[in-house]
Design a protein that fits this description.
Blueprint lengths: L1 H24 L5 H17 L8 E2 L5 E8 L2 E8 L4 E3 L4 H9 L16 E3 L4 E6 L2 E6 L4 E7 L22 E7 L5 E6 L2 E6 L6 E2 L9 E2 L5 E2 L5 E8 L5 E6 L9 E6 L9 E8 L4 E3 L9 E4 L3 E2 L5 E8 L4 E8 L5 E8 L21 E4 L4 E6 L6 E6 L5 E4 L6 E9 L4 E7 L10 E7 L6 E2 L6 E6 L5 E8 L2 E9 L4 E8 L3 H5 L6 E6 L6 E7 L10 E6 L26 E5 L9 H5 L10 H14 L3 E11 L1 H12 L6 E5 L10 H8 L5 H5 L12 E7 L8 H12 L5 E5 L8 H15 L16
Parallel strand pairs: 39-40, 39-41, 41-42, 42-43, 43-44
Antiparallel strand pairs: 1-2, 2-3, 3-4, 5-6, 6-7, 7-8, 9-10, 10-11, 11-12, 13-15, 14-15, 15-18, 16-17, 18-19, 20-22, 21-22, 22-23, 23-24, 25-26, 26-27, 27-28, 29-30, 30-31, 31-32, 33-34, 34-35, 35-36, 37-38, 38-40
C-alpha cells in the first residue's frame, strides 16, 4: 500500500516537473506579442476584400442592396435583378461630406452604418447610429438628426426591459383604423371604444377593463370585413425591477441611478385574455380560456381573410405544449387547430436562418387556411408537414430524414412548391453546412439548388422571382450569385471575395476537427486555432472558448477573418459545439433540458482527448477555458464540475444561477415550475466545489444578465474560503472589459498556465 502511495507521489512530482520544464522551454511572452495580439484581428479584417454581407431586397421591386469590404472600409452596391445591372445606391463621397457637417468626419469608405432604408421612392435614406435615427436627402445631400429611438408610441416598456406586454394607456388620438377606413378603435378608461372616422362621439364596446385588468390598444385587430375586432385584456403579473448604480458616469461627477423591468424564472406573468367584439351589434363575446389556461405567451390575433374567425399561438408555461387556437367569429368558440407536445421542451420561437439564435416554429397558411405548412420535431428532427386546415390532421410529411430544416425561404401556393434550407442531408459533410432545396407539398421532387459543398445563405425577392445565394467555408472566401427562381438559372456572379493579401500577411484559417461524443457515435464538430508561428515539434497549452447556449450552434461555418488573440501568446485555442446546442437532432438538443451545467462537457472532454491523441503538440495537461454570458456560467462550471480536466477559467458576465437570469431563456431550457434542477446547475450553490484558478468579470451596468448573479457567486466563494480574482468594470455592460479586460484575460492565462510573469503595465508613466 505504501509503495503504491509512493509511486503516486513520484508520478505527481514528475508530471509537475515536466510542466515546469515545458513552461521554461517556452519563450517569455513579450509586450510586443501582446501588441500583435491586439492589432492582428483588425489588420486581417482590412485585408479581405470584396467580402459581401447579406443582401437586403428593396421592398416592392427586383432590386437588392448589400455592403462589401473595400480598401479602407466598406462600400454599398445596388443590383437590379431584372437586367443584372449594378450601381452604387448613392454617392458615397457626398453622403460622407454631408454627415461630416454634424461634427464627426467620415470618408466614402467609412460611412457610419451597415444597413439603411430607402424612403420617398429612393429620394432619401434613413439609418440608425448609436440609437439615433438619421435622415439623408439624396438630392440635396443634406442629413438631419431625427432624434433618439423610442419604443413604438411608448406603448411598450423601454428597450432595456425584458417585457413585451403593452402598458396600460388611454388615448383617443392613438387609434386603430378599420380596414374599410370608416371606423376607429382605441382605449378609453382602460376599455375599448369605437367611433366613426372624424366623429367626436364614441361607443363603448367593453366596460370590464380597469387599471388592474386593462385593454391594450396595441392588441386591437380588426376583421378584414370591418365588422368585428379582437383585443386583449391584460391582468398584470409581478413586474420585477432591478436597480443600477452607474458609479462613474461620463456626464457628471455623482453616480447615476436607474432601474428596469426584468422578469426572472418563476415570476408571475401578465395574463392576456383575448376578447371578441361585434362592432355593429355592440356585443362583447367572452372566449373561454380552457384551452389556453396558463400562457407563457400568446401571439397577436390573426384573422382569416374571409373574416370567419381568427387564430393565435399559445405557448404554455413550461414550454411543453404549443397550440394554434382558432376562434369562430360568430360564436366566440375556441378550438385547438394544431397542438405540439414534448416531454422536454418545445423550441417555441419562430425559425430564422441564423445558426447562433433560432427557434423551431414555422407556419404558412395556404389558401386562407385550407391547408397549413407546419414545422415540427415530432419525429426527432425539425421537418415540415402539410396539415388539413379544418381538422389540423397531418395530410402528409413534406420533408423527412435524419437532417433538419433550417429555414423556409419561399412558398409557391400555385405550383405547390417550397424553397427551403436544410443541413445534415449530405453524408460525410459537416452536418451544420446549410444547402438550399426545392420540394413539392406532397413531399415529392426534392431537388438541391446548388452543388457547392460550402455553407449557403439565401435571400429571396419579395415576389419570389429571384434569389441571392452566398456561400463560403471557414477557409474559403464567399461567392455571391443571383438566380432566377423559375428555372434555377444563375444570372450573374455578384461578388467573389479576394483574400490574397490576407493570406500573404500570414492569416490562416482554423483547422476543423471532429471526434465522437459521449454516445460513441455522434460526431462533435469543432475548430482549432494555432499560433501564427506554429511549430508541430513544440507542445502548446490549450484554451477553450466556450458558449453552450441551447439557442444556437456557435462554431463558425462561413468565412471569417476572425482570429483568437491568445494564439499570439503561444496558446492553441479551440471551440466546439457539444450536445445540448441547436441545429442537430431533437435528442442532441434535449441534453440541455433541466441541466444547463451539462454544457456538453462530456463531449468536449472526449473531443480534447481525441485531439491530444492525434496531435503530439496538443497539451491538455494545462487546459484553460473562457466564456461570456452562458459561456461565463459554463467556464466557471468547468472548474466546479470537471476540475480534474480544466485548470484555469475566466468567466465574464456569467448567468451563474438560472433563477437570477431573464425568464424566457432560463425557463425555456430549465423548465417551470422552478425546481431543484435550478440549484443543481447553480454556480452559486456549488461554489464550494471550486478548484483551480478563476477570474470573474462583471460590469455594473449589465442589462442582459443581472450583475448580482456574479456578486452572489463571489459571496459564496468568500464564505467557502476560496481564492479567486474579481474584475469589476465601472459602467460596463454585458461582456464588459473592452481592451483592458481582454489584456486581463490574457495576463490571467499567461500567469496561471504558462507560469510566467506578465509585463509590468504600470512601468510607463500614465498620461493624464
Amino acid at each position: 500500500m505504501q509503495s503504491k502511495k509512493a509511486l503516486a507521489v513520484y508520478l505527481s512530482v514528475l508530471a509537475a516537473f515536466e510542466i515546469i520544464v515545458t513552461n521554461r522551454a517556452l519563450a517569455q511572452v513579450t509586450q510586443a506579442q501582446y501588441q500583435r495580439a491586439s492589432e492582428t484581428g483588425k489588420k486581417y479584417s482590412e485585408l479581405a476584400l470584396n467580402i459581401p454581407e447579406n443582401p437586403v431586397w428593396i421592398e416592392g421591386g427586383d432590386t437588392f442592396v448589400y455592403r462589401k469590404t473595400v480598401e479602407g472600409g466598406h462600400a454599398f452596391v445596388m443590383i437590379n435583378a431584372s437586367d443584372q445591372t449594378r450601381k452604387p445606391p448613392f454617392d458615397h463621397a457626398r453622403l460622407a461630406a454631408a454627415l461630416s457637417k454634424n461634427g464627426k468626419e467620415y470618408k466614402a469608405e467609412t460611412l457610419p452604418f451597415a444597413r439603411f432604408k430607402f424612403i420617398d421612392k429612393q429620394a432619401a435614406i434613413e439609418f440608425v447610429q448609436d440609437n439615433v435615427r438619421w435622415h439623408c436627402d439624396l438630392g440635396k445631400y443634406e442629413c438631419s438628426n431625427l432624434g433618439r429611438l423610442r419604443p413604438e408610441e411608448e406603448e411598450y416598456d423601454s428597450d432595456d426591459d425584458y417585457e413585451n406586454v403593452p402598458k396600460a394607456a388611454n388615448s383617443d388620438t392613438r387609434v386603430v383604423a378599420s380596414p374599410d377606413g370608416k371606423s376607429e378603435a382605441y382605449v378609453v378608461n382602460y376599455n375599448i371604444a369605437v367611433r366613426a372616422k372624424g366623429s367626436s362621439e364614441h361607443t363603448m364596446l367593453s366596460t370590464d377593463g380597469s387599471e388592474g385588468n386593462y385593454y391594450a390598444r396595441a392588441t386591437i385587430v380588426w376583421s378584414p370585413d370591418s365588422k368585428r375586432l379582437v383585443a386583449y385584456r391584460i391582468l398584470p403579473g409581478h413586474h420585477r425591477v432591478i436597480h443600477y448604480i452607474e458609479s462613474s458616469p461620463a456626464t457628471q461627477l455623482q453616480p447615476l441611478y436607474s432601474s428596469m423591468v426584468y422578469p426572472k424564472a418563476g415570476d408571475v406573468l401578465d395574463l392576456e385574455q383575448p376578447v371578441l367584439f361585434d362592432v355593429g351589434a355592440k356585443r362583447e363575446t367572452p372566449i373561454s380560456n380552457e384551452l389556453f389556461p396558463n400562457p407563457f405567451e400568446i401571439s397577436g390575433a390573426a384573422w382569416w381573410k374571409d373574416s370567419r374567425g381568427f387564430t393565435f399561438e399559445y405557448n404554455q408555461r413550461g414550454h411543453q405544449i404549443f397550440r394554434v387556437i382558432e376562434v369562430d367569429a360568430g360564436t366566440g368558440a375556441a378550438r385547438i387547430l394544431i397542438s405540439e407536445e414534448s416531454k422536454t421542451f418545445i423550441d417555441y420561437r419562430h425559425i430564422t436562418m441564423n445558426q447562433f439564435d433560432t427557434g423551431k416554429i414555422y407556419r404558412h397558411d395556404v389558401a386562407d387556411g385550407k391547408e397549413i405548412i407546419w414545422m415540427s420535431e415530432r419525429d426527432g428532427w425539425a421537418h415540415l408537414y402539410l396539415l388539413d386546415g379544418k381538422t389540423g390532421n397531418i395530410k402528409n410529411q413534406i420533408t423527412k430524414g435524419e437532417w433538419v430544416v433550417r429555414a423556409v425561404n419561399h412558398v409557391d401556393e400555385e405550383k405547390r412548391q417550397i424553397w427551403f434550407e436544410a443541413s445534415g442531408m449530405r453524408a460525410g459533410e459537416d452536418p451544420y453546412f446549410v444547402h438550399a432545396y426545392r420540394i413539392n407539398f406532397d413531399g415529392s421532387g426534392l431537388t438541391p439548388l446548388a452543388e457547392a459543398d460550402d455553407n449557403h445563405h439565401l435571400e429571396f425577392s419579395e415576389d419570389g422571382k429571384f434569389y441571392v445565394d452566398t456561400w463560403s467555408k471557414i477557409d474559403v472566401a464567399p461567392t455571391m450569385a443571383l438566380y432566377r427562381v423559375e428555372d434555377n438559372q444563375q444570372l450573374m456572379v455578384v461578388e467573389k471575395g479576394d483574400i490574397q493579401k490576407l493570406v500573404a500577411a500570414g492569416w490562416h484559417a482554423p483547422d476543423v476537427f471532429t471526434a465522437k461524443g459521449r454516445d460513441g457515435k455522434t460526431d462533435i464538430w469543432g475548430v482549432i486555432y494555432k499560433p501564427a508561428n506554429f511549430d508541430p515539434k513544440k507542445k502548446y497549452p490549450v484554451i477553450e472558448n466556450i458558449y453552450a447556449g441551447p439557442q444556437g450552434s456557435f462554431v463558425p461555418k462561413s468565412f471569417t477573418t476572425r482570429t483568437e488573440r491568445l494564439t499570439e501568446l503561444g496558446f492553441v485555442v479551440v471551440q466546439m459545439d457539444g450536445m445540448g446546442t441547436n441545429n442537430r437532432s431533437k435528442a442532441f438538443h434535449d441534453v440541455a433540458w433541466h441541466d444547463l451545467k451539462d454544457a456538453g462537457f462530456a463531449d468536449r472532454i472526449l473531443w480534447h482527448k481525441a485531439a491530444a491523441a492525434k496531435f503530439p503538440w496538443y497539451d491538455i495537461s494545462r487546459l484553460g477555458i473562457f466564456g461570456t454570458s452562458a459561456g461565463g456560467q459554463s467556464a466557471m462550471g468547468a472548474l466546479l464540475f470537471h476540475p480534474e480536466f480544466y485548470k484555469v477559467a475566466v468567466s465574464n458576465s456569467g448567468c451563474h444561477d438560472n433563477r437570477m437570469d431573464k425568464i424566457w431563456w432560463n425557463e425555456q431550457w430549465m423548465g417551470w415550475p422552478v425546481g431543484p434542477q435550478y440549484s443543481e446547475s447553480s454556480n452559486v450553490d456549488n461554489a464550494y466545489r471550486l478548484q483551480g484558478k478563476l477570474m470573474l468579470v462583471v460590469g455594473e451596468m449589465d442589462k442582459n444578465v443581472d450583475p448580482s448573479s456574479t456578486y452572489q457567486v463571489a459571496d459564496r466563494l468568500i464564505k467557502a474560503n476560496k481564492s479567486f480574482d474579481l474584475f469589476f468594470v465601472p459602467g460596463g455592460g454585458h461582456g464588459a472589459g473592452g481592451e483592458y479586460g481582454q489584456r486581463k484575460l490574457e495576463d490571467f492565462f499567461v500567469h496561471n498556465i504558462l507560469g510566467q510573469e506578465t509585463p509590468d503595465w504600470n512601468a510607463a508613466t500614465a498620461a493624464h
